[in-house]
Design a protein that fits this description.
Largest sheet: 8 strands, mixed
Pfam families: DFP (PF04127), Flavoprotein (PF02441)
Number of helices: 14
Binding site for CTP: 284, 294, 312-315, 332, 350, 354
Low-confidence stretches: 177-182
CATH class of the largest domain: Alpha Beta
Structural class: alpha/beta
InterPro entries: CoaB-like_sf, CoaBC, DNA/pantothenate-metab_flavo_C, Flavin_trans-like, Flavoprotein
Cofactor: FMN; Mg(2+)
Keywords: Decarboxylase, Flavoprotein, FMN, Ligase, Lyase, Magnesium, Metal-binding, Multifunctional enzyme
CATH superfamily of the largest domain: CoaB-like
Distance between the termini: 42 Å
Amino acid sequence: MRILLGVSGGIAAYKSVLLLRLLREQGHAVRVIPTAAALRFVGAPTFEALSGEPVSTEVFDDVPGVQHVALGHGADLVVVAPATADLLARAAAGRADDLLTSTLLTVRCPVVMAPAMHTEMWAHPATRANVATLRERGVHVLEPASGRLTGADTGPGRLPEPEEIARFALAAVEDRHTAGVASQDLAGRRVVISAGGTREAIDPVRFIGNRSSGRQGVALAEAACARGAEVTLVAANLPESLTHPLTAAGATVVGVSSTAELRQAVRGAAPGADVVVMAAAVADFRPARTPTAKIKKVAGAPPAPIELVENPDVLAELAADRLRAGQVVVGFAAETGDDAGSVLEHGRAKALRKGADLLAVNAVGEGLGFGAEINDVTVLDSRGETVTSVAGSKREVADGLWDAIAKYLTSM
């Protein structure tokens, strides 16, 4: 793949060297386009040595070659890391005052920007407006990480780690390619998908939660968009960096926190849906009472017990109610084996109990399921019979599950 790595002038520019090496080690050809300010942090010889390609900052460095056009037309991916507040502002305004911003106006490939700046600059209304403008144009702008900044400052504005930037950027290219060749077997279909993990408040600062990253649900939404569906994603406590590519692709994203909020959002969208996929990790229980003030620790006294009450079973409700005639309801069952049975045995019991048309059963635990890059699911029908098994990346699992759902739709 031919990648352009833009580097703007911030202290985090040193991480762009690590990103460059990572991309090169994965076999990609990388041309670095720094701003003049970036070269005050990392010198051109470093970029040239690691990329094996010349470094330019100005369109006048090779006038006969018309570099900004040639580079833009030949790129498969553009990554800008770090993207400073100044770079975001110039890109949003359509400026073309150096080689990097000029090239950004000529590319037709995915563009990923990884911001890095002080917290106050990231939170400033001008920066937020620039980010919104870029995202509306289809640019993937990551959310910055939180942590130590320059000096003693901490907060949101830290450049994400190179591995995270590379993973996100390469996935953006994969999604574009997939969208170009994917079957449009969901064209005209409306789907509702829940993703993430719900949180139940103990007090204003504490909650009961789970380890779900939401990536499997987001992958399901991305795959459905690529196959032509009209998608609504009910996102439980997911960062914008994970969901904004879906918004750019035309999906509707509804943010929620608790099980009650998720239930309301899913049931509100379900009457118009052909398929409802409950991929979110929904809390089975919630505190019976939630005080309005933080629970204080009393020296020498044991903590007060937290009484739990059962949450509504959203999946079972949807399967029983069928808020639209002919609606297909799909659930997920994250299980661990125990003395009472294996993962699959617990999954089969749940399939019979829930009444969903399809149930994707997967093992969870250390290095499995939640937060992992790969997944392995067995899809059961409402009788607990195996329909199919899918393993691989979460996007591969998503496509395999949609294959099963599409067959189910056509058989109805």
